[in-house]
Amino acid sequence: MNTLDNIRKSFNYATSRNDRSEIGQFLTPVAIARFMSSMFETGPQRVRILDPGAGTGVLFAACVETLISKGERPRSIEVVAYETDSAILPYLEDTLRTCQSLCISKGIEFHGTIKAEDFISAALSEVNGSLFVAPGIRFTHAILNPPYKKINSQTAVSRKLYLSGIRVANLYAVFVWLSMLLLEQDGQMVAITPRSFCNGPYFKRFRAAFLRMMSLKRIHIFESRKKAFGDDNVLQENIIYHAARGLQKPESVFVSVSEGLDFDRAVTSAVPYSQVVHPHDRDMFIRLDIKEADIVPTEQVKNFTSSLSKLGLNVSTGRVVDFRAREHLKQFPQQGDVPLIYPCHFVNGFINWPAESSKKPNAISSNSETSNLLVEAGFYVLTKRFSSKEQQRRIMAAVYDSARINASYVGFENHLNYYHQNGRGLPADLAKGLALYLNSTMVDQYFRLFSGHTQVNATDLRKLPYPNQEQLTRLGALIGETMPDQETIDSIIEKECSNLDK
Fold this sequence. Notes:
Layout: H1 2-14, H2 17-22, H3 30-38, E1 46-51, H4 58-69, E2 76-82, H5 89-105, E3 109-115, H6 119-127, E4 139-144, H7 156-163, H8 171-181, E5 183-194, H9 204-213, E6 214-222, E7 238-245, E8 252-258, E9 267-272, H10 273-276, H11 308-311, E10 314-317, E11 329-330, E12 337-341, E13 346-347, E14 350-351, E15 363-365, E16 374-376, E17 380-384, E18 397-400, E19 409-412, E20 416-420, H12 428-438, H13 441-450, H14 458-462, H15 469-476, H16 486-501
Parallel strand pairs: 1-2, 1-4, 2-3, 4-5, 6-8, 12-19
Antiparallel strand pairs: 5-7, 6-7, 8-9, 10-20, 11-15, 12-15, 13-14, 16-19, 17-18, 17-20
């Protein structure tokens, strides 16, 4: 990826700024590409990525890199990249080959196609096909930095767009409009464009189509107009947005703000959807002034300045994938078996095992074939990887207490994450304090700002701020046989925060 940034800089240096401006070409920095890719939620097993106006391919490359780094990788990835600039095609071909090699190394099927043709004409043929022509490919992901250029109303392409009902003043809106038409149901789009479409009469038709077809989930705002494409001296108010094809609107839109490419210092807020798009606004403006919005407070959790690395802790995904180890699973333990823990064993902040009425197995054989799936008995903190939208909290934690379960080893199923110290258990009070902290409303609200979906991955948990070891141990000493109720948990954590403020 860093090589692509060097190519971008070299290409910019070797070509004329006026020539690039003439075709609206501003190549995406790697930092932006990676940030954009991080917005995608976990998707289907068979991924099809659209990158219109691909340039050197940095956007789809970042998307592929992100997808294969996740715990649950897709089985196959297909990329379709459009680019008409012949000077940049060799770089694009190299990027595609790099993606192919990367996927093959991870056991993922890969197909890549470069279409050296005009995206608008090709897309119009796809979306306006006759009843006698089989529908073309639809995409699960679209990632784009479209050209910024006004449309000449006298061209043939402009007339085709007009006849198709696509009536906008700038190419970037055309690219976004056609891309969302090419998405399958629940397909996702991440785009970086000027923010000019958010209000005003010129983009009203585009806004109406966008908000009708897509569910807006996240917006990132750059405070500086100079930073996003500084190499090109572009003075433009850009935003990045993530949306999914579908009618169901989220309760909140996550709005983040950074000065420039310092995304790790971005301030994020959950803004009610009705405040971003007012339900009775006939102009359908997209409001980005978050200062007056009813945002979720986040400052409290920032009082905790430790991290998992500072604590000497790790978090991993459970090793037991039940359908792959089916022959070793038991409904109830027998001689030579050890506990197998599922989300159904979570009771009042601790693991209750075995679960008498559970449909899930309670045990796994301990033998040479399963030894790499098990960990030594000890105190562990477990979190559920999946939750429903209706559940009160996204992060739900429980303590595995080896003193309550007579076993030398234990298996954690793949729907769980587990905190450990280099593969072994934690000190008892540290584990209890960590579970208390993770079960607080404060942490849940903070987590929701950075994750708009219901899945909680180990990577997400690594990014959280944490109390230090002394604080966690002090919190853990307050816990008895069960976890306190939610009100008490929140009261304890807020008191700990107030002590830090003094």
